[in-house]
Amino acid sequence: MAGTTAKAGKRADAQRNIAAILDAATECLSRDPAASTSEIAKAAGVGRVTLYGHFPSRAELVDAVFVHAIEGGEDTLGQVDLSGDPRDALARLIESSWHLVDRYRSLLLAAQDTLPPGRVQELHADPMARVERLLERGRKDGAFRTDLPTSWLVSVMHNVMHGAAGEIHGGRLTPDKAAGYITATLLAAFTPPGEPVR
């Protein structure tokens, strides 16, 4: 019985350490995409050995932090009203999505610099599936173009969003203007050729 209690205590300690490391990594990488594991361990109140015991490499830690951020974002995006006119629904989704991208833009840069090619897009599978469903509905309603594949339109939205984060990081765009720019760009890109852009 004592052994079982000790194991449960170790598991609880490990879970607390993992949570502390993820929180610290989110905070550190949000300030500085190049934050080191030493800085993150110090902010988490653990030693580097403990950090590496849970996350054997910086890349694995960045991956875990990014997954954690996206899972939290999914809770927010799941509450966005996507009913009604598909163009209005798209604008609402862009607004909510942009707040998340803006909040985690330094973390996004860390992920893009650290993770293998394609991994960032792979981790966006659930948010992008939501966009795909909205675009498909808009295509059926005649609001969005049908001459290009839906997968291409989803990719365009993904890249415009992340491009805006890079523009802000480079000092060429301010966060308060980004959602409007993104919405205008995507509505122009998604409107059927020859039709006026709303």
Question: How would you characterize the overall build of this protein?
Answer:
Helices cover 76% and strands 0% of the residues. The chain is elongated, with a radius of gyration of 20 Å. The chain has ten helices and no strands. It folds into two domains: 1-56, Arc Repressor Mutant, subunit A, CATH 1.10.10; 59-198, Tetracycline Repressor, domain 2. It has 198 residues and is mainly alpha-helical. It has helices at residues 2-31, 37-44, 48-54, 58-77, 86-103, 105-114, 119-123, 125-141, 150-169, 175-190.
Question: What key attributes describe this structure?
Answer:
single chain; 198 residues; 2 domains
How many extended strands? 0
Amount of beta strand: under 5%
Mean pLDDT: 89
Query: CATH first level of the largest domain: which class?
Result: Mainly Alpha
Please name the CATH topology of the largest domain.
Tetracycline Repressor, domain 2
Assign a percent range to the helix content.
over 70%
Number of domains: 2
Biggest beta-sheet profile: none
> Helix- and strand-based class?
mainly alpha
Cα shape: elongated
- What is the CATH architecture assignment of the largest domain? Orthogonal Bundle
Summarize the structure.
The protein has 198 residues and is mostly helical.
Helix/strand layout:
Blueprint: H1 2-31, H2 37-44, H3 48-54, H4 58-77, H5 86-103, H6 105-114, H7 119-123, H8 125-141, H9 150-169, H10 175-190
Helix pairs in contact: 1-2, 1-4, 1-6, 4-6, 5-8, 5-10, 6-9, 8-9, 9-10
